[in-house]
Specification:
Blueprint: E1 3-7, H1 11-23, E2 27-31, H2 34-44, E3 48-52, H3 60-69, E4 76-80, H4 85-93, E5 98-101, H5 106-124, E6 133-136, E7 139-142, E8 147-150, E9 153-154, H6 159-170, H7 178-186, H8 195-207, E10 218-221, E11 225-228
Parallel strand pairs: 1-2, 1-3, 3-4, 4-5
Antiparallel strand pairs: 6-7, 7-8, 8-9, 10-11
Helix pairs in contact: 6-7, 6-8
Organism: Aminipila butyrica
Domain OmpR/PhoB-type: 131-229
GO molecular function, one term: phosphorelay response regulator activity
């Protein structure tokens, strides 16, 4: 049974989400402040973290950044009461895999949890001695080891950035709209959330040393979407 950690300071949200997690076959534990939350991460080793941004003690962005800097790769879905794009971008920049804006649909949250866990497992449990390498110029991706290098130097990507990069590399030359990328990479209906793709593309380009107006790797096709050169 997968264990989900809810780090959230609103008891009614913990109760609602926890109830639905149990009904969907998950075990859950919770913390109402950031300090206890990060303690439970290390002690309980959850399979996924639902992380609120506005928390007493230590906020969600600090927790996310601290875990990623320590090498903890546990999938994280940020929960934010703000629709401000800055909060979403910061969460993704610090290593979150996804985000939900309050008030959110419980059904959609369960779908995203399932999608994130499935993709995390697909990238974690690989058959031995079957490495798959994708390459373009100085960029190399080892899809089985979940490693990306640029000019021989490692590039640190979030899980979703890695999945997006792999998909574009595996389909080089093909143009995909934002909706198509959401469907293919995120795996569920993200109606109205196409900015998610733009944010991930922006950070991928930055980490690959590519300016927004360059066509070195990821190209923007005006009015259509994105493709890998």
């Amino acid at each position: 049974m997968k264990k989900i950690l809810i780090i959230e300071d609103e008891p009614n949200i913990i109760e609602l989400v926890g109830y639905n997690l149990k009904n969907n076959g998950y075990e859950y534990i919770s913390a109402e402040d950031g300090i206890m939350g990060i303690t439970l991460v290390h002690r309980e080793k959850p399979d996924l973290i639902l992380l609120d941004i506005m928390l007493p003690g230590k906020n969600g962005h600090e927790i996310c950044r601290e875990l990623r800097e320590d090498g903890n790769k546990t999938p994280i879905i940020m929960l934010t009461a703000k629709s401000d794009e800055v909060d979403k971008i910061l969460g993704l920049e610090f290593g979150a895999d996804d985000y939900m804006t309050k008030p959110f649909s419980i059904r959609e949250l369960m779908a995203r949890i399932k999608a994130v866990l499935r993709r995390y497992e697909e990238n974690t449990f690989r058959p031995p001695n079957s490495e798959h390498i994708l390459g373009l110029d100085h960029l190399q991706i080892n899809t089985d080891r979940h490693e990306v290098t640029l000019g021989g130097k490692p590039v640190e990507l979030t899980l979703k950035e890695f999945e997006l990069l792999c998909f574009l590399m595996e389909n080089r030359g093909h143009v995909f709209s934002r909706d198509q990328l959401l469907d293919k990479v995120w795996g569920i209906d993200y109606a109205g959330e196409t900015r998610t793709v733009d944010v991930h593309i922006r950070y991928l380009r930055k980490k690959l040393g590519q300016d927004d107006n360059e066509d070195k790797y990821i190209q923007t096709i005006r009015g259509k979407g994105y493709k890998m050169r």
